[in-house]
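User: For my dataset I need records formatted as: sequence, then structure tokens, nothing else. Please produce one.
Assistant:
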Amino acid sequence: MAPNHRLLPLLAAFVGVGCLSLMDAFMKSASLAAGAYTASLLRSVFGLAIIAPIWLLTKPSWPRGRVMWLHIERGVISAFMALSWFFALTRLPIAEAIALSFIAPILALYFASIMLGEDIRKEAIWASVLSLIGTVIIVSGRLGKTEFTADLGWGLAALTFSAVLYAYTFVVIRKQSQLAGPVEIATFHSGISGAVHLLAAPFLFLLPAPEVLGTIGISALLTVGGAMAIAWAYARAETQVLVPIEYTGFLWAAAFGWIMFREAVTVETLIGVALIVTGCWIAARRQRTEQTAI
């Protein structure tokens, strides 16, 4: 990858994480109003309605073989990942949930090593550790006052399950992105995830109020945009290079909290921001220059 284009995948991943973080805020509202299952199902359906026409306009050929299998694999995993994540958001504050989910990028480094054969460079490990330390500093000032309850326990369990699945999807996204374009990936991600959700529709679906449908529609648009940006980034950079960008999700959440709810930015947050950005910079400058731009 040419030096002047080396930061573009990082920028795309940064924007993608921002879209998904804002989506989380809207989806928490929808999940509290209509239930995590209904909100998650409709998000997939609306997402498919947004992206599928764009994909069809490209006059695509239907994916086959390994490509189709990767679409199915990610769609099924994402369905359960989303359900557990949105359930966790109904039990935990958004910023804290996002911060705790940062175990996923750490796990992703090792999934990538085992399944993709990527060499985990010392610099990538230090970048992730530094970013994780920043996250711990930020969270320490927030979770210390939280009383442990049954709801919190269920939320933490759901979040941990979702984080493990999320870590695995990093590897799937990396393989997908080498074989299919962002629009195709986003189309099948929404379609297959929605199909999995539909299996439980006769038992769990409840039609939400019109205003909730609007909130879910915005969430679907953000999901599509975020998924395409991240797919584009993973087609152009290694998993370990992009992993530290995931930590910026907390920064996005803090920003949305201030803009939407006037939540104050603490000293711990500022210190954490400095460490997270430093971790991202270390990963970016160590990216292999022999990667080919697409």
